[in-house]
Design a protein that fits this description.
Length: about 250
């Protein structure tokens, strides 16, 4: 039986990611591409040389091309990374789905050598704020009440505090906002499917949602948020966590 404390249905999350990888739509991975660029810039600014690097991702093939020398670990609650082995540990666009984020961060810290660098990128709380509002209102109209459909994501301050709780030092949290535009909410939902970011909440309704719900969501979204050219915006908040393992 699933623990009531679990936010994510990890089996469903795995299915969504496998489906997204099978579709192979690299254009839908634009957030991952932007994060890769950001991480490269940050590493260049730090001017660090890393003899041994590790990387956690739900899309290892996509990330392997960007960090070819990194040892890859699957995005699981138990990472399986050996202790005190790495100078650099990258946690890539996955922590927002973790049922135990502090536990994941502790595992990353323990895998680092003293003074080793930790970099994490994940989706933050402002992500899909327009979709959240629209689909909640649509559910009240179409189904008589709202249910969990978009994962609640962490606030930057809370996520920064998690680094300290996990035993890191020199912790810094910052964010950037990415605005994408779509012809409709339905096109946005198709993109989320191709990103592997569709609903994997443990408490979600398991029956199929009606077409009426999604059409109503699209109507509300367009009515409330569309630009003069008729396209709708979608907000994505990318949060970056940077820290060091204790030096002794």
């Amino acid at each position: 039986m699933r623990s009531p404390l679990n936010l994510t249905d990890t089996d469903s999350l795995g299915k969504h990611r496998r489906r997204a990888r099978a579709e192979g739509r690299n254009d839908a991975m634009f957030l991952h591409s932007q994060v890769q660029d950001e991480i490269r810039v940050r590493l260049e600014e730090l001017d660090g040389r890393f003899a041994a690097a590790a990387l956690v991702s739900g899309f290892p093939e996509f990330w392997k091309g960007a960090f070819e020398t990194a040892e890859l670990f699957p995005d699981r609650e138990i990472l399986g990374a050996p202790a005190s082995r790495f100078d650099l540990f990258i946690h890539a666009m996955a922590l927002h789905w973790s049922n135990d984020p502090v536990g994941q961060l502790i595992q990353c810290r323990m895998a680092l050598r003293p003074g080793g660098l930790f970099l994490c990128a994940l989706l933050g709380g402002a992500t899909l704020q327009e979709l959240r509002q629209s689909i909640a209102e649509a559910e009240v109209f179409a189904a008589g009440g709202a249910s969990p459909r978009v994962a609640p994501m962490g606030d930057i301050r809370d996520l920064g505090n998690l680094l300290q709780r996990a035993g890191f030092i020199d912790a810094v949290a910052d964010s950037i906002t990415v605005k994408a535009t779509y012809s409709s909410a339905l096109e946005l939902m198709r993109d989320l499917r191709s990103m592997g970011e569709t609903n994997a909440l443990a408490e979600r309704k398991t029956e199929f949602a009606s077409k009426k719900l999604f059409l109503e969501c699209a109507r509300i979204y367009a009515e409330r948020f569309s630009a003069p050219d008729g396209r709708i915006p979608a907000t994505f908040e990318l949060i970056f966590l940077t820290a060091r393992a204790p030096r002794s």
